[in-house]
């Protein structure tokens, strides 16, 4: 597994998300300031539309979620689970900032625990 350079840290909006292409997959990367960086699939599994990077960030039940802009399902930025429908989930990816660059860890199965550290 390798760390892949995605973008410069300055390209990430504060407390928002951006979409990126990574390992043939559209991912969403969120910069939550002191809470850290998070990365997950950008495609909403309920609709198949690649738009989670545009979702609203919220804190529910002690976890951080992104609400899908279309039907408002909430996906955990930590584990990818969906509050409203247990059958829906997204992959999460390890992400870090190093020397001003945002790096995402490439994995064969693309299912990693999100960067909580």
Describe the structure.
By secondary structure, this protein is mostly beta strands. It has one domain: Rieske Iron-sulfur Protein. It contains no helices and ten strands. It has strands at 3-8, 16-22, 25-31, 37-41, 56-60, 63-67, 74-76, 92-93, 95-98, 101-105. The chain has a four-stranded antiparallel beta sheet with strand order 2-3-4-8, with no helix packed on it. Residues 108-117 have low confidence and may be disordered.
Q: State the CATH superfamily name.
A: Rieske [2Fe-2S] iron-sulphur domain
Text of the CATH class: Mainly Beta
User: Alpha-carbon distance between the termini?
Assistant: 18 Å
Domains counted in the coordinates: how many? 1
As for the CATH topology, it is Rieske Iron-sulfur Protein
| Order of SSEs | EEEEEEEEEE
Q: What portion of the residues fall into strands of 2 or more residues?
A: 35-45%
Which sheet architecture does the biggest sheet show? 4 strands, antiparallel
Secondary structure: number of strands? 10
Compute the gyration radius: what is it?
Answer: 13 Å
Strand order of the largest sheet: 2-3-4-8
* Helical coverage, percent range: under 10%
Helical segment tally? 0
Overall shape: it is: globular
Mean pLDDT: 89
Q: Structural class of the secondary elements?
A: mainly beta
CATH architecture assignment: 3-layer Sandwich
Query: Unreliable stretches, pLDDT < 50, 5 or more residues?
Result: 108-117
């Amino acid at each position: 597994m390798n760390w892949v350079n995605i973008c410069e840290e300055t390209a990430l909006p504060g407390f928002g998300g951006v979409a990126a292409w990574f390992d043939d997959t559209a991912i969403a990367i969120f910069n939550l300031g002191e809470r850290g960086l998070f990365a997950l699939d950008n495609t909403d599994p309920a609709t198949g539309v690649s738009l989670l990077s545009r979702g609203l960030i919220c804190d529910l039940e002690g976890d951080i979620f992104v609400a899908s802009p279309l039907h408002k399902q909430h996906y955990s930025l930590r584990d990818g689970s969906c509050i409203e429908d247990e059958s829906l989930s997204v992959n999460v990816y390890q992400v870090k900032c190093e020397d001003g660059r945002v790096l995402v860890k490439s994995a064969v199965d693309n299912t990693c625990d999100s960067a909580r550290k």
